[in-house]
């Protein structure tokens, strides 16, 4: 679901086939029954996410998952769209609902979930103050952003609409990584949202971490919309390409209805060592009802205005870990190499935290995502709405 300008959250272990193939290939009769399909808001008709049983993520070659997906697709008349193998043990496919229910009863399948729609978290307004706010505890603002660390040596994966990597804000630090929308690089930004988010994460003027490496992971189209299955493909790519021991953060300024598959993919990517900052959403509702905002180990970010109050659109509740500036945020835009735009939304709050996490990881590269989250929450400025992001000007 998309957060319209109010922009709303856009309506957005691998099977060891030796053992699994015995179950899958050897028992067509077992497929005669029907199982339950996990439902989601804003479902995409005829599109499903299939999660396989038994093996832990990352323990089986991707080829084995692909082979299992192919076997199951042939059995149930499905067309495989994405094959996962790092963040989620499964695949996405197109098939009829009747066939999906039969597939859900297959002994090789843990569950089948409806695919859904993700979108952005943005609204349009006026100028920048977010950086000024996060390097000081009390108001009023002091018209300065003071910092020492810059995110050097840290990679920030921007899971969004792509990035205009030639923008002057990025100074050659941005690159294309993956494109789930068109299936091939470049993961260019034809919307603007991803470039704006990247600027807040790591732009030289507008960014929290001014020397972080930015990688475009495009999962939303030119309208700012994408499928759950495509977003999982992006998370899977991040997990697969993240090198063990390499400090990394990921920003997801997007969201949709609750999805177990999306949350599981984010959880598994976090277990691989990537710190995730995710937007709480712009529905003025409980963030626990949305994904990826409800992912337990991610850093879920709500949006505040310049008076430290909750932004009127921001989701809230126990799933929100921290708050950050999200109203009237100026950053880079996609229309030229010098373009800027002022946007509002939890989409704009989340990259403040992603950039802060990158700064923390520069100084503490061996920290786990949980350590990063706990540090940011414990050092935050206490305000009425909850802990407000604070990044020390001396560290």
Automatic annotation (TrEMBL):
Q: Does the keyword Hydrolase apply?
A: yes
> What are its GO cellular component terms?
extracellular space
Domain Peptidase S8/S53 stretches: 151-383
Q: Which GO terms describe its molecular function?
A: serine-type endopeptidase activity
> Where would I find the Inhibitor I9 domain in this sequence?
47-120
Under CDD domains, the record lists: Peptidases_S8_PCSK9_ProteinaseK_like
Coiled-coil intervals: none
Q: Which family does it belong to?
A: Belongs to the peptidase S8 family.
Supply the name of the protein. S8 family peptidase
What is this organism's lineage?
Bacteria, Bacillati, Actinomycetota, Actinomycetes, Micromonosporales
